């Protein structure tokens, strides 16, 4: 059984779903119907009920939006997906807040240097946005590339993390990202 809650956020309403103590979906509310069907199929479960704070994820996401960007790191998640997708998502989760990496860099990190497009496909299949930070993945030329939630949300998330990241964060400024090809 999944527990589901909604959260108003600076990037719009979010829907969170957890099974037990693990977050298994976090998405923008406008994507929820399609995501709910995918979560049910991926995790072989179709029972849903409302809850105030599934797996504590509403509280953790509130902390994230309040500036504690590291709060999401300890949030337990249930991924599902293929072995390759799980490797790609783990590599995405290892990108420090305030930093970015290209699809090609992630492909190298997981030992499949020719799989940058497959990493992009894994990013597109991500059901736990922000926590699995596909917004931190950019094109090979440094341009923002795509983002299922839209580029304005991606820019906002990157700016938010850069503003709250510790000293030494290497993320480019919003202006630098916007000036890059593909932005």
Commentary on this structure:
- With 183 residues, the protein is an alpha/beta fold.
- The protein has 2 domains: 2-74, Double Stranded RNA Binding Domain (2-Layer Sandwich), CATH 3.30.160; 83-179, Orthogonal Bundle (Arc Repressor Mutant, subunit A), CATH 1.10.10.
- The protein has 7 helices and 6 strands; from the N terminus they run βββαβααβααβαα.
- The strands form 2 sheets. It has a 4-stranded mixed beta sheet, sandwiched between helices. The chain has a two-stranded parallel sheet with strand order 5-6.
- Helix 4 crosses helix 5 (116-124).
- The longest helix is centred in the last third of the chain and has 14 residues, at 151-164.
- Mean pLDDT is 87; it is low at 167-183.
Keywords:
four-stranded mixed beta sheet, alpha/beta, globular, Double Stranded RNA Binding Domain, 7 helices, 2 domains, about 180 residues, disordered C terminus, Arc Repressor Mutant, subunit A
Helicity range: 25-40%
Main beta sheet: 4 strands, mixed
Quick check: average pLDDT?
A: 87
Q: Give the C-level CATH assignment of the largest domain.
A: Mainly Alpha
Provide the spatial order of strands within the biggest beta sheet. 3-2-1-4
Structural class based on helices, strands and sheet pairing: alpha/beta
N-to-C SSE series?
EEEHEHHEHHEHH
Fourth-level CATH superfamily of the largest domain = Winged helix-like DNA-binding domain superfamily/Winged helix DNA-binding domain
Count of discrete alpha- or pi-helical segments spanning 4 or more residues? 7
The number of distinct β-strands equals 6
Shape: globular
* Poorly predicted parts: 167-183
CATH topology of the largest domain: Arc Repressor Mutant, subunit A
- How many discrete domains? 2
Radius of gyration: 16 Å
Residues in β-strands, percent: 5-15%
């Amino acid at each position: 059984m999944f527990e589901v809650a909604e959260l108003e956020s600076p990037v719009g309403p979010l829907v969170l779903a957890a099974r037990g103590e693990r977050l298994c979906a976090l998405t923008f509310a406008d994507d929820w119907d399609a995501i709910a069907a995918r979560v049910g199929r991926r995790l072989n479960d179709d029972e849903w009920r409302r809850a105030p704070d599934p797996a504590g994820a509403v509280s953790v996401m509130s902390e994230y939006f309040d500036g504690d960007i590291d709060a999401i790191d300890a949030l337990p998640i249930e991924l599902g997906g293929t072995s390759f997708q799980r490797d790609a998502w783990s590599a995405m989760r290892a990108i420090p807040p305030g930093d970015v990496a290209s699809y090609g860099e992630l492909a190298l990190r997981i030992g499949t240097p020719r799989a940058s497009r497959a990493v992009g496909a894994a990013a597109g299949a991500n059901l736990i946005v922000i926590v699995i930070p596909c917004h931190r993945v950019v094109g090979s030329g440094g341009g923002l590339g795509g983002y299922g939630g839209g580029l304005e949300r991606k820019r906002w998330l990157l700016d938010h993390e850069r503003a709250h990241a510790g000293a030494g964060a290497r993320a480019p400024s919003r202006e630098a990202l916007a000036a890059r090809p593909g932005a």
